[in-house]
Design a protein that fits this description.
There is one protein chain. The chain has seven helices and eleven strands. It is an alpha+beta fold and 243 residues long. It has a single domain, classed as 4-Layer Sandwich (Phosphatase 2c, domain 1), CATH 3.60.40. The strands form two sheets. Strands 2, 3, 4, 5, 6 and 9 form a six-stranded antiparallel beta sheet that branches. Strands 1-11-10-7-8 form a five-stranded antiparallel beta sheet. A hairpin with a 2-residue loop joins strand 7 and strand 8. Helix 6 packs antiparallel against helix 7. The longest helix is centred in the middle third of the chain and has 25 residues. The protein is globular and about 40 Å long.
């Protein structure tokens, strides 16, 4: 696998509240990719996203072994997310300045051409196969619910005034409730994990075009295009090419 990852502050924010981790280990066969987009005050978002990524990576490293079955892998992802949720929630209870902090989280574990996913919030995971891009995760957002309920169109969602309003995030409640998914990947499939600083700025067909034009520089080119479109938020991308 070839992996390219980058995070950028964007053009409007004073701090980068996105965090990410790429961990690949041949001996244990653990290939783990985590992305979190924090929220909540000046310090809160940065702390929440960093705590989430650190806690989840630590938990999965300790619990994972390559002989696990599908349900066991999904369970350790779920437990790792709960472990991170507790860490964020407890910290917010202690410090008044951090009471509103939380984060999105994407956990992606790859083993034997299977992808195991934990998802909360409106960061996203896509699979690119050939010339098709498919969104694997479903946003936990107010606008996504409106689309699903048929109240607005997908096109209207792009410019909706409440498109950043989440209905689920990590660390904001005592109990985490992630979506747990698993998909397959074939040779030459590409996975894209990204924060909404990318997807709010450029459309999915543009994302596909940029990645297919130059995979080696795609992370830089995606961030550049998002900034050219306004760069209203932090932008983080992890691109995994199953070579």
């Amino acid at each position: 696998m070839k992996v390219f990852a980058k995070s950028d502050i964007g053009r409007k924010r004073s701090m980068n509240q996105d965090s990410f981790s790429v961990f690949e280990d041949e001996e244990s066969k653990l290939n783990l990719y985590i992305l979190a987009d924090g929220m909540g005050g000046y310090k809160g978002g940065e702390i929440a996203s960093r705590v989430a990524v650190t806690a989840i990576e630590k938990y999965i490293k300790e619990k994972f072994n390559s002989n696990m079955k599908k349900h066991q892998i999904l369970k350790i992802i779920e437990d790792a997310i709960e472990f991170a949720n507790n860490a964020i929630y407890e910290e917010s209870e202690v410090d008044e300045e951090l009471q509103d902090m939380g984060t999105t989280v994407e956990v992606c574990l790859i083993l034997d051409n299977k992808v195991y996913i934990g998802h909360i919030g409106d960061s996203r995971i896509y699979r690119i196969r050939g010339n098709t891009i498919e969104r694997i995760t479903t946003d936990h957002s107010y606008v996504e619910k409106l689309v699903r309920d048929g109240e607005i169109t997908r096109e209207e969602a792009y410019t909706h005034p409440k498109k950043n309003l989440l209905i689920k995030a990590l660390g904001t409640e005592k109990k985490a409730e992630p979506d747990l998914l698993n998909i397959d990947i074939k040779q030459d499939d590409i996975l894209l994990i990204c924060s909404d600083g990318l997807t709010n700025m450029i459309r999915e067909n543009q994302i596909l075009k940029i990645i297919k034009e130059n995979e080696e520089l795609a992370e830089n080119n995606l961030i550049e295009k998002a900034n050219e479109a306004g760069g209203l938020d932090n932008i983080t991308v992890i691109i995994i090419n199953n070579k």
